[in-house]
Amino acid sequence: MSSFRTARTPRARLVGAAATVVLAALSLTACNDGTGVESEGRTTGTPSTANGTATAPPQDEPAAGTTQDSGTDASAPAANGPAGKDSGTKAPAASGGSGGSSGTGASRKPVTCEGSVTRTTAAPLTRPVNHMLLTVTNTGSRTCFLYGYPAVRFGEAQAVPPVIEDSQPQAVVTLEPGQSGYASVSLAAADGSGTNGHTVKSLTVHFQGRSGNGSVGTAAQPSLPAQGVYVDDSLKVTYWQQSMDDAVSW
């Protein structure tokens, strides 16, 4: 019995060693993914193309023909501000100088001479007799035009006296600030031929506009002598004149 056991021991060891060699060889050709059925020669990290089917690309790279959604359209530049607006640049504000210039121009534009921009005085004349001189002085800051003739009302008269047509000047009387224009009033007939003569103590002077139709602006009320002045139906006036001499020549 002792010799039999000794004879079988080396054979068992030989069989065990052979089995170990076979297992090692199989281990060298087997895949590490646990399937046990893989083609030989597979390179680690390369996608398999077995059966003609391509393996999907890694998830951190978009597949060909697709785009990743980053929330921004890559074809359009990033907006710098509201559409249609310049980025932070505004048009310059209108210059205050032009407004001031406009205001200056307006202050120099001529106006119509009337009571609010003039001072009117009435002074009886000794020559010609029964005449009165009206003087209108520009007290404003702008040039004014003294149109037509004075529409005068003595006392409670309802109508204005007629104008002496031949006294019309060739040009409209123009008064710079501080300058004066003139007109004379024939109060009564020198030969006493006038009718309805009476004494008046108040006078109102109305001013005409460019059209000559009616009065414009504020009327003037120059003072008369305390004893008043005598007028009759021959009452008439001249056109406004640029000089005193022209006014008293009628």
Give a nutshell description of this structure.
The chain is of the alpha+beta class. Helices cover 18% and strands 24% of the residues.
Total helical elements: 3
Shape: globular
> Which class do the helix and strand fractions yield?
alpha+beta
Order of helices and strands: HHEEEEEEEEEEEH
The largest pleated sheet is described as: 5 strands, mixed
Rg over CA atoms, rounded to whole Å, is 60 Å
Distance between the termini: 184 Å
What's the overall average pLDDT, rounded? 72
Low-confidence stretches: 1-106
Overall helicity: 10-25%
Beta-strand percentage range: 15-25%
Would you count the extended β strands for me?
11
Q: What descriptive keywords fit this protein?
A:
single chain, 250 residues, alpha+beta, 5-stranded mixed β-sheet, 4-stranded antiparallel β-sheet, 24% strand, globular, disordered N terminus, signal, DUF4232 domain-containing protein, DUF4232
Describe the model.
There is one protein chain. With 250 residues, this protein is of the alpha+beta class. It has a domain at 111-247. The chain contains 3 helices and 11 strands. It has helices spanning 2-29, 96-108, 244-248, and strands at 111-112, 118-125, 131-138, 144-154, 173-175, 180-186, 198-200, 203-208, 215-220, 229-231, 236-237. Strands 1, 4, 5, 8 and 9 form a 5-stranded mixed β-sheet that branches. The protein has a 4-stranded antiparallel β-sheet with strand order 2-3-6-11. A hairpin with a 5-residue loop joins strand 2 and strand 3 (131-138). The longest helix has 28 residues, at 2-29. Residues 1-32 form the signal peptide. Keywords: Signal. Residues 42-56 have a biased composition (Polar residues).
